[in-house]
Every structure is written in C-alpha cells, then in structure tokens.
Amino acid sequence: MLSDTEDQMARRPGRPDKNSRPGRLRIVAGKWRSRLLPVGDDPSLRPTSARVRETLFNWLAPVIGGATVLDLFAGTGALGLEALSRGAKRAVLVEQSKPTLRQLKDNIATLDAGNASVVAKDALQYLCHAEPEPFDIVFLDPPYAAGLYEELCRLLDEGGWLTPGARIYLELSDDTDFPGLPAGWTVLNDKTSGKVRYLLLRAPERSQQRSNG
Questions:
Q1: Is residue 100 helix, strand or coil?
Q2: CA dist 197 to 38, 114, 212, Å?
Q3: pTM, to two decimals
Q4: Is the CB of residue 93 less than 8 Å from the CB of residue 74?
Q5: CATH no. for residue 171?
Q6: 211 found inside a domain
Q7: pLDDT exceeds cutoff 90 at 190
Q8: pLDDT tens digits for 110-150?
C-alpha cells in the first residue's frame, strides 16, 4: 500500500494517478480493470487517486450495480468510468473544458462505453437549466477553492436530481470548512488521505423537495 505522502503527491494539480504511468489513468476494478487511459496535460486536472477510488467504491459496493450515476466535474472521467466498470447502468459526465472533453470522449470511445454520455456544460448551469432526472449516485469533486459545495448540494436536493436514499460523494481539501448540508442528509463515511478529505453522504429516503402549492 502506498503511503499518504505518495497519495498526496498524486493529488496535486497536473499530477496523474499515482498507480498509473505518467499521463495515464488506471481503472482499478471491474470489467475494465487495469485499463490505462490517456490523461490530458491540463494543469488544473487532479484525478481522484486510485487509492481513494478503491475506498470509495468499497463504500458504494452495495448500491453500485445497476445504478445511474452523475459525475458533475468529470475531468478525466476517473469516477464515472470507474462506476461503469463496476456495474453502474448509466453515467452522465459533465465537463466544460474543451481539451478535457476531447480526451474524455476519446477514452469513452476506447472503452466502447455506450452507457456513458458527456455533457459539455458548467456544472451549475447544468443543474439550473437542464431537464432534471433522478440519479442514484452523484460525484461532487469541484475545484477546492471555488466554494461551490453548499450550492451544488442545494440544487441537487431541490431540483429533482436524486432518487430516494441517493448517495452523494464529496471530495474537498482537508482545510476546507465542512459545507452545510440539506435537511435530512446524513454522513455515511468520512475519511482523510493526505490533504484530501472525502465523504459519502446519503439523501433522505423521502423527497425533500418543496411543494409549489
């Protein structure tokens, strides 16, 4: 097992996944296990490390099979593609960077992942303006300093984007203040690796959306 120092280095902007060759992302498990995919040279990319993904998907193991997945800051696709590899039914990957989008689409084509769709939009614009559909699992890994967590969680909660009991993954810097969560959301798992804090949350079993009446 790699040390926390190695894991932290892998999460710095511009660094590839620690368990992959330089410029490559490795799928950890499932039908595409050990597949290596190219990663763009965008210095703002910081793909979720293989170590963190392994822990996250152990948490998600009871619910990943047949799940619908929304990856709101897809980047390299590390989370959305890992979910599909492990049995998710469908994944929507939202990304606004044009160079990153090109590589993401190429990687989806390489894997022949017909159940993955890419949306070329800003995540907030997508949640505010797209026709909502409920997802079983949502990945939230925005830029750490952007301060978007509370607004994203509110939009997911109120906008019809979550199935009852949906799981929401948050990844943030360990020195970031914990965001306020919508009513009824609970923390299932909470862990820190190096400078990264990552959590799995659960939405209420019953919808919390406000009535218009």
A1: helix
A2: 26, 32, 37
A3: 0.85
A4: yes
A5: 3.40.50.150
A6: no
A7: yes
A8: 999 999 999 999 999 999 999 999 999 999 998 877 789 99
- In this predicted structure, what is the pLDDT of residue 207? 53
Which of the pair, 83 or 18, is modelled with greater confidence? 83
Residue 91, both tokens: 């994944």
Q: Say which residues have a Cβ less than 8 Å from residue 99's Cβ, sequence separation at least 6.
A: 40, 42
Distance from C-alpha of 84 to C-alpha of 73, rounded to nearest angstrom: 16
pLDDT above 90 covers a percentage of the chain that reads 69
Measure the CA–CA gap between 138 and 22, rounded to whole angstroms.
28
Q: Which domain holds residue 58?
A: 4-202
pLDDT of residue 67: 98
Is 207 within the bounds of a domain? no
Joined tokens for residue 149: 């967590």
Domain membership of residue 209 (yes or no) is no
Sheet strands (E) in the chain: 24-26, 36-38, 68-71, 90-94, 116-119, 135-140, 162-173, 186-193, 196-202
What's the total number of domains in the chain?
A: 1
Amino acid identity at 185: W
